[in-house]
Design brief:
Layout (H helix, E strand, L loop, with lengths): L3 H31 L6 H20 L1 H11 L7 H19 L2 H23 L3 H22 L5 H6 L8 H24 L15 H15 L8 E3 L5 E5 L2 E6 L6 H19 L16 H15 L3 H14 L1 H4 L4 H8 L13 H20 L7 H13 L25 H20 L11 H12 L9 H9 L6 H14 L3
Parallel strand pairs: 1-3
Antiparallel strand pairs: 2-3
The structure holds zinc ion.
The site of zinc ion (ZN) has 4 residues, from helix 10 and helix 11.
Length: 502
């Protein structure tokens, strides 16, 4: 009769070592983006590959499989946290061992070639150059889906890596509703005579003052600088080495201070989640979000619903006027609010506003599901892209660099990633609707206790679970209803009816 607690202790210790390797990898990647001199790239690539190989070997070795096999059917002998750790580890291990190593290697090689060709193709706006690599990534991803297994669509096997349990057939009706109502909203806004005047935004904004302001806002949000730090990088991101070492990066645009602000608040939302994971879960896979969509809900909630609200700008206008007296002398909080929420259909997803963002995602979802399901071929992508941009956003795509070549995801073989951005938006609005019911006067109190109260609510409803619950269970437990697009559409339609009256 084996002692299950003894086996569990072995598993816990082994997962601790694996997590250490993962966090060391993350630290090397963080350094690569933030501090590493350009000539360090070669050696860094080797170091990352060595550690990644070591981590994979450790995670998929016989000892791990024996431990999981012994523990997975005996979870009734374990505490709920222990059982969750076994369940989540078994899930990760099943995924990791289903794909043969030969395919993992092929995929990694094709990925780095596709990435290099994508960079050049985008530079020259030359889809032909990228097309064979897109085909390779689609073919390998379809093969990967076959190994992983699925019920309805091979796309589901890929989507599952980012949003556990979600399927294309669940997403389609949700995205149809969003596409119809958001396209209609964007068309209405285009007709409105009330477009804000934002020429005052295009001035010089001192970089040090921008960074200082962002740090003050982060501190107010509850980001713990003794358990993290903020640096600059080309693409802003959040990374975690432990629940007490969660770092963020931001980018600064010297001609638009709203850019650094929104990226800091966005990454701050991600970081609050990571800093709020239970210390008891550290060095285990439980110290993580159950899906990318739920992680993104935290960043979007702070960035858009809080950080683009009028009370937010009312609170921070006096401080901004101290930091930028010349630029903001004549500017009101209403001007800031309207500037931060201006709507203009555009070509580039990462620059999109709240009203158009999901439309960019839906277009990608429709194309990538068709690619993975085999109903279209890679050569059809540019034409399909351009016609969908016209239908959803009313814009003409001048070239593929501003069209289907703009994102890295497909070069990376990350099919199934895009929907998590839209799900993040939906979850954020659903959570916020509930938070406003639970915390009376929340938005009228942004000057006072709103941030700490909201953070405490998010800690209690979301952060504390780590991977103990999946995304759908977290949303349902927090709000009393299944994930739905309605709260997001309500939020959007109410907010923009006032900003852009007919
Ligand atoms: Zn994000």
């Amino acid at each position: 009769m084996p002692d299950f607690q003894d086996l569990y202790a072995q598993l816990f210790e082994k997962l601790g070592e694996i997590t250490d390797i993962r966090h060391a990898l993350a630290l090397l990647q963080w350094d690569q983006e933030v501090y590493m001199p350009p000539k360090g790239a070669y050696a860094r690539g080797q170091q990352l590959a060595t550690l990644a190989g070591l981590e994979h070997r450790f995670f998929t070795d016989t000892e791990m499989r024996l431990l999981i096999d012994a523990l997975r059917d005996r979870t009734e002998d374990l505490s709920p946290e222990q059982a969750a750790l076994v369940r989540e580890t078994a899930h990760d291990l099943d995924r990791a061992v289903r794909i043969p190593e030969s395919l993992v290697r092929l995929f990694a090689e094709a990925q780095s070639r596709a990435y290099e060709e994508w960079v050049e193709a985008r530079r020259g706006s030359d889809f032909q150059r990228f097309q064979p690599h897109l085909k390779t990534m689609v073919d390998l991803s379809r093969e990967k889906a076959e190994y992983l297994g699925y019920e309805e669509s091979p796309y589901d096997a890929l989507l599952d890596e980012y949003e556990r349990g979600m399927t294309a057939s669940q997403l389609r009706p949700i995205f149809d509703v969003l596409a119809a109502r958001q396209s209609a909203l964007v068309a209405r806004i285009a007709e409105s005579p009330h477009h804000p005047e934002v020429t005052w935004l295009d001035q010089d904004w001192n970089e040090a003052a921008q960074i200082r302001f962002c740090e003050e806002v982060l501190r107010d949000m509850g980001y713990d600088f003794s358990a993290g730090r903020q640096d600059k990088s080309v693409h802003p991101f959040t990374t975690t080495f432990d629940v007490q070492d969660v770092r963020i990066t931001t980018r600064v645009n010297p001609r638009d201070f709203l850019s650094a602000l929104s990226s800091s608040v966005h990454e701050g939302g991600h970081a609050l989640y990571e800093q709020g994971l239970p210390v008891a879960f550290r060095r285990t896979p439980l110290a993580d979000a159950p899906s990318l969509g739920i992680h993104e809900s935290q960043s979007r909630l702070w960035e858009n619903i809080i950080g683009r609200s009028h009370p937010f700008f009312r609170r921070y206008l006096p401080r901004l006027q101290q930091l930028f007296p010349r630029q903001l002398d004549q500017v009101t909080s209403a001007d800031l609010y309207r500037a931060a929420n201006r709507v203009a259909p555009s070509l580039i997803r990462v620059d999109a506003d709240e009203c158009t963002y999901n439309l960019h995602v839906i277009l990608r979802f429709e194309i990538e599901t068709a690619l993975i399901e085999g109903s279209i071929r890679p050569e059809h992508v540019p034409e399909l892209w351009n016609s969908k941009m016209r239908v959803y956003l009313g814009v003409d795509v001048p070239d593929d660099a501003h069209g289907c070549l703009q994102d890295i995801h497909w070069a990376h073989g990350s099919f199934g990633y895009f929907p998590t951005y839209a799900l993040g938006n939906l979850y954020s609005a659903q959570l916020m609707e509930q938070a406003k019911k639970d915390i009376p006067d929340l938005m009228n109190n942004v000057d006072g206790n709103a941030f700490p109260e909201l953070l405490a609510w998010l800690r209690d409803r979301i952060h504390c679970y780590g991977r103990m619950k999946n995304a759908g269970e977290i949303i349902e437990a927090a709000t009393g209803s299944r994930p739905s697009p309605e709260p997001f559409l309500r939020y959007l339609e109410e907010k923009y009816a006032v900003l852009y009256p007919a």
